[in-house]
Write a structure and sequence with these properties.
single chain, mainly beta, 5-stranded antiparallel β-sheet, 3-stranded antiparallel β-sheet, 11 strands, 41% strand
């Protein structure tokens, strides 16, 4: 409908796929997988016979505390044909990110952008709870001895 406004219903972090929502006090460990889920409301749909088509695209990634990407961004599409009985359907996508074993501690972020391709609208956000990552013990020890990650990786 013309009155619909694209919005995030929920941006959440999980310890495993479809697991319970994590409290903001949760600390992730080096090498741990972070599961991120996003639910979207206020999207447009177009008639297609007896069905309604929905076309959404998304992009997300994991950023270190200094805003550097941990890995290349992840992208996807939700291209669905809905029947009348799907009126309560909520678009959702789930992605996982692997925290490297050798990471600096601090607050990591998962920015996400969703585009409603039918309405031409776009929204961006981040989960309300920060991703608190513990510094890897090896990194902490190396830092205390003045050894940098770059020097350990150079051949």
């Amino acid at each position: 409908s013309a009155a619909s406004k694209l919005a995030f219903e929920r941006l959440a972090l999980h310890q495993y796929e479809d697991g319970p929502l994590l409290p903001s006090s949760h600390d992730f460990l080096p090498g741990e997988t972070i599961w991120f889920s996003c639910r979207i409301t206020g999207f447009e749909s177009e008639a297609a016979g007896d069905n309604r088509n929905v076309k959404l695209s998304w992009k997300t990634g994991l950023l270190e505390p200094n805003k550097i990407a941990v890995e290349p961004p992840k992208t996807g599409r939700l291209d669905e044909s809905l029947r009348l009985q799907d009126k309560d359907w909520v678009p959702k996508f789930v992605v996982s990110f692997l925290l490297p074993s050798f990471i600096p501690g601090g607050s990591y972020h998962i920015p996400v952008t969703v585009k409603d391709e039918l309405a031409g609208s776009e929204i961006s956000g981040v989960p309300a709870s920060e991703i608190n990552a513990m510094e890897s013990p090896a990194r902490s020890l190396a830092t205390s001895f003045g050894v940098s990650f770059a020097s350990l990786c150079s051949w």
